[in-house]
Design a protein that fits this description.
single chain; Immunoglobulin-like; six-stranded mixed sheet; about 500 residues; mainly beta; 3 domains; 32 strands
Length: about 500
C-alpha cells in the first residue's frame, strides 16, 4: 500500500508540475507582450474583411468633379537664376489647385511618367481606406507608365492638400504635392487664396544633416528644428522664393480668406501687420478665434485658414525675421497699381496663434469621453549603427512599432509624449481627434505638433474601418521609423510592405 501511495503521489506531483507549466505558458502567451503585434504584421493575417471590400464608393446623384494629375520630372525655377530638379504633378510646384464643392463626388486619375513608383495621399480628407494612397498598406504604388483612379466624396468643407506617400521623405521634398480646397456651398469670398510653404536644398546637399556631430550639437540646443535647419537653405511660397513670389493684390479695407499649408518639414512663424489677421480654421475645422495676435505658427503638415484685412499702405506677410532664410518667405500685399518696393516684415511679437490656440466651433465630444482603448505613445530618438539616427515610437521603428488595435465604435485615448529633442508633428490618417486647446476649450484636428518635453492627450472615435497610418509629418522622421498604424482588428490589408512599396 505504501508503494502504491508513493506512485500516486509521484503521479500527482508530475501532473501538477505539467499543469503549472501549461498554465504558465498560457499566461505568458496571453500577456500584452506576446499578444502585441507589430505594424508590419498587419498584412500577414487575412482575418475578417479585406479593406478593398469596405464602404462601397458610389456617386449617386452627386455632382462629379474629374481631374487628371501626371507625375513627371520638371526643371523648376524657384527664383531668377536658381532652379531645382523637381518631381511634380502636372509640371508645376505646387501641383494644380483642385477646387470642389462640399458634397461633390471627386475622381482623380493619376498617371505616372516618373521612373519610380508614386501615389497620392489626400491629407486630412475622411475617405474610404483603400483611397488613402499609402503604399503597402492601402494600395500598391503606381508603377512607371501606369495609372490609378482615386474616388471619394468631399463630405467636409475646408483646406486640404494632396501629396505622394511613396517614399514621402524624398518625393514630397522634391515637389509632389498640391492643394485641395473643398468649398462650402453659398457665397464665395472675393479673395480666396492658398499658400503652400516649403523648404528646399538649392545650394547644398539635403543629406548634410546626417553629419552626426553637427546634428547632435544642434539637437542639444533644444531648438526642435536642428535637423531641418541643417538640411535646407531656401524657403518657398507656392514653389517660389523671395522676389519671385507673386504678390496678393488687394485694396484698403478688403478682406481675404488665406489658406496656409505647410508642406515642408520645418515649423514656420508668419508675421502679419498688427490687427490684420484672425484665425478661421485649423485642419479644416472652424475655430473660435479672438483675433488679437499677429504671428501665425504652422507646423509641418498643418493647415490654417485666416481672415486677412488689408490696411491703407502696401504690406507684407512673412517669416519671423530672426529665422535664417526668412527673406525667402515673404508675401507682398499690394494695391493694384503698386510695385511694392522696400517692404519689410513689421509688427511686434505678442502671443502666437497656433494649431492648438483656440477651441473648435463643433466638437467630437462635449465632455471627456469614457475610453475603450488606451495607448501610450512615447516619441524618442535613437541610433542604428548601420543607418545612423532613427526616430522611435515606444522604442521601436516601423514596421516593428506596436499598432493601436481597435474595433469599430471604440473610443480611443492616446497619450503622446515627446522624450526627444526635435519637434514631431504627429498626423492621424482617416480620422479627426480632439485635444485640449490653450483657451480652455478643445480643438478638433488631424495633426498635433509635439515639441520636446511636451505631452498631449487626444481622443477619437474608431468610426472608419481600415488600416490607418499615424506618423510624424516631418517625413524624414517617418522615413526613419516614426510610424505606427491604427489597426481595426476585424479587417486586413491584402498589400505587402517591401523596399519599393513603403510609405
Amino acid at each position: 500500500m505504501w508503494e502504491v501511495e508513493v506512485v500516486k503521489r509521484m503521479w500527482f506531483g508530475s501532473f501538477m508540475i505539467i499543469a503549472l507549466i501549461a498554465v504558465g505558458v498560457w499566461v505568458f502567451f496571453q500577456s500584452p507582450f506576446m499578444q502585441e503585434k507589430s505594424a508590419g504584421e498587419l498584412n500577414s493575417s487575412e482575418q475578417g474583411q479585406s479593406i478593398l471590400d469596405i464602404q462601397p464608393i458610389d456617386a449617386g446623384s452627386r455632382p462629379t468633379k474629374q481631374f487628371e494629375l501626371t507625375a513627371k520630372e520638371t526643371d523648376w525655377e524657384i527664383q531668377t537664376g536658381e532652379s531645382v530638379n523637381a518631381w511634380t504633378y502636372n509640371g508645376t510646384v505646387p501641383g494644380e489647385a483642385l477646387r470642389v464643392q462640399q458634397g461633390d463626388f471627386v475622381q482623380v486619375e493619376l498617371h505616372n511618367e516618373l521612373e519610380v513608383p508614386v501615389t497620392i495621399h489626400w491629407h486630412g480628407v475622411i475617405l474610404p481606406n483603400r483611397m488613402d494612397g499609402v503604399p503597402g498598406v492601402t494600395q500598391d504604388a503606381v508603377e512607371p507608365g501606369e495609372s490609378f483612379t482615386y474616388e471619394f466624396i468631399a463630405e467636409d468643407a475646408g483646406t486640404y492638400w494632396y501629396h505622394s506617400h511613396q517614399h514621402s521623405s524624398l518625393q514630397v521634398d522634391k515637389g509632389l504635392y498640391g492643394p485641395l480646397v473643398v468649398e462650402e456651398k453659398g457665397e464665395k469670398p472675393e479673395h480666396d487664396e492658398v499658400f503652400i510653404l516649403d523648404e528646399w536644398a538649392v545650394n547644398q546637399d539635403r543629406e548634410n544633416w546626417t553629419n552626426m556631430g553637427g546634428m547632435m550639437m544642434g539637437s542639444m540646443q533644444g531648438d526642435g528644428e536642428a535637423d531641418t535647419k541643417e538640411m535646407y537653405d531656401t524657403f518657398t511660397v507656392n514653389g517660389k522664393a523671395g522676389d519671385a513670389i507673386d504678390p496678393l493684390r488687394m485694396e484698403e479695407g478688403e478682406t481675404a480668406r488665406l489658406r496656409f499649408v505647410n508642406a515642408g518639414y520645418q515649423l514656420h512663424r508668419l508675421v502679419f501687420p498688427e490687427g490684420s489677421m484672425e484665425m478661421l480654421a485649423v485642419d479644416a475645422e472652424p475655430v473660435q478665434s479672438s483675433g488679437e495676435r499677429n504671428v501665425l505658427e504652422i507646423a509641418p503638415g498643418e493647415r490654417i485658414d485666416v481672415l486677412y484685412t488689408k490696411g491703407k499702405d502696401d504690406e507684407i506677410i512673412g517669416e519671423m525675421p530672426s529665422v535664417e532664410n526668412s527673406q525667402d518667405m515673404q508675401i507682398p500685399v499690394l494695391s493694384s497699381d503698386s510695385s511694392g518696393e522696400n517692404l519689410q516684415v513689421t509688427g511686434k511679437d505678442p502671443a502666437t496663434s497656433k494649431g492648438t490656440s483656440y477651441a473648435s466651433k463643433d466638437l467630437l465630444f462635449d465632455t471627456v469621453p469614457d475610453v475603450d482603448v488606451s495607448y501610450d505613445m512615447n516619441l524618442s530618438m535613437g541610433m542604428n549603427m548601420g543607418e545612423g539616427m532613427i526616430w522611435q515610437i515606444n522604442d521601436r521603428v516601423f514596421p516593428e512599432t506596436p499598432p493601436i488595435q481597435v474595433e469599430k465604435g471604440d473610443i480611443v485615448k492616446v497619450d503622446i509624449t515627446n522624450e526627444g529633442r526635435l519637434n514631431h508633428p504627429m498626423h492621424l490618417h482617416g480620422h479627426r481627434f480632439q485635444v485640449e486647446a490653450e483657451d480652455g476649450g478643445a480643438v478638433v484636428k488631424d495633426l498635433i505638433n509635439v515639441k520636446p518635453g511636451e505631452s498631449y492627450t487626444i481622443y477619437f472615435e474608431a468610426d472608419n474601418k481600415g488600416e490607418w497610418l499615424f506618423h510624424c509629418h516631418d517625413n524624414n522622421h517617418a522615413d526613419r521609423g516614426m510610424v505606427t498604424i491604427v489597426d481595426y482588428t476585424s479587417v486586413f490589408s491584402p498589400f505587402e510592405l517591401n523596399q519599393t512599396n513603403q510609405p
